[in-house]
Amino acid sequence: MPFDALVLRQHEGKTQAQVESLELDALPAGDVLIKVDYSSLNYKDGLAITGKGKIVRDFPMVPGVDLAGEVVESEADAYPVGSQVILTGWSVGERYWGGYAQYMRVQSKWLVPLPDGLSTREAMILGTAGLTAQLCVQRLQNAGITPDQGPVIVTGASGGVGSLAVSLLAQQGFKVHALSTKAQASAQLKALGAEEVILWADFMQEAPKMLEKSIWAAGVDTVGGDTLAKVLAQTQYNACIAAVGLAQSPALNTSVMPFILRGASLLGVDSVMQPYAQRLAAWEALAKNMAREHLQSVAAEICLAELPEYAEAITEGKIRGRVLVKL
């Protein structure tokens, strides 16, 4: 049975992405076959498709770090035929074939069941970005951060992780300040629950100092670099910053001052290798806490053939919110 997939191949050292027709026997080994309803486009996917990052090393590759759909063949008792499932992370779309295909065979240990009340479409508007945002909120709450302690900053707020973090934090009662390079995103960010929108050019008028005026009780940083250094310099006493991204830079030129003089904590958050129990709990929390109207407002829907164009755009910082891929 033929089906469509976006396939990456290399030609003369350059990555080429093209929609191809494949047969089921071309799929990798696995104990579950999924009819994919939706996937999504993440920054890492953009790097893989364009070849701008060394994300994929073995070719041919079907990229796409996320997928959601229905099990149509199964050797796994936990996922009988007809089950609806989500897959994010586990190096799928990097080392293993991923979600940009109408059918995909995978390892059942990578899956979580679709939570009650969540559709596969909503699950992929969330995707890795939503899972990551939820894990950030949980890390901050587990560290004892509460809304009455003061404002929370979200950097890269108009991106996928950032916009969903704004919504989730606002739903939990936090006073969210959204930091973005995009002035045109202000109205949408306020609709998601941001109390204030800060333009990056204003925020970064001066290079970060070792310590600055105390402002933030907590934060979610998706960009790294000097932006994260400045956020750390502006922390309140015992503040916590969850770090999840490097869109600006993987480098962090800071000092120990926020940590030893203000007791600040920098909390790393990874969504790729999260154990099953934590992963499932995060998805169930998303199904319970995420405002459905916010999901629709941050999503653009595309097809497989449009992925190369959108992949280029996301690596250039031209995408707002989430990009949903309908299979």
Number of beta strands: 15
CATH class of the largest domain: Alpha Beta
Largest sheet: 7 strands, mixed
Count, helices: 10
For the residues shown, what is the average pLDDT?
A: 96
Low-pLDDT stretches are none
Tell me the β content.
25-35%
Radius of gyration over C-alpha positions, nearest whole angstrom: 20 Å
Report the helical percentage: 25-40%
CATH architecture group name of the largest domain = Alpha-Beta Complex
Total number of distinct structural domains: 2
Secondary-structure element series: EEEHEEEEHEHEHEHEHEHEHHEHE
Structural class: alpha/beta
Overall morphology: globular
> What is the CA–CA distance across the termini?
16 Å
CATH superfamily of the largest domain: Medium-chain alcohol dehydrogenases, catalytic domain
Q: Provide the CATH topology of the largest domain.
A: Quinone Oxidoreductase, Chain A, domain 1
